[in-house]
Design brief:
By secondary structure, the protein is mainly α. It is built from seven helices and no strands.
Length: 106
Amino acid sequence: MRIYLTMFAVALAAAAAMYAADAKAGKAQYDTSCKSCHGPDGTPVAAVAKMMKVEMKDLKSPEIQSMSDADLTAVITKGKGKMQPVKAVTGKSVDDVIAYVRSLKK
């Protein structure tokens, strides 16, 4: 029984690694779909915020970094406030973008 549990754990770890979010791929997607408003390092583009008459949060801020992955997914895929859903970011790309956003706090 123990050998089966060990084999299961190894298989599960391999599957998790295969589907793990990729911050490098997330940066590429971010650069294409998010950077024009959120800036290259997560700092909002002031001109965009002013034009839209919104206060955009810095993606490095504790407020954004403390959001759950599910909440960030909802913002990306459904939008929030004046931010429209990002239709170009779907599937695994959402997880990759979130991994990139998480890397900004380091």
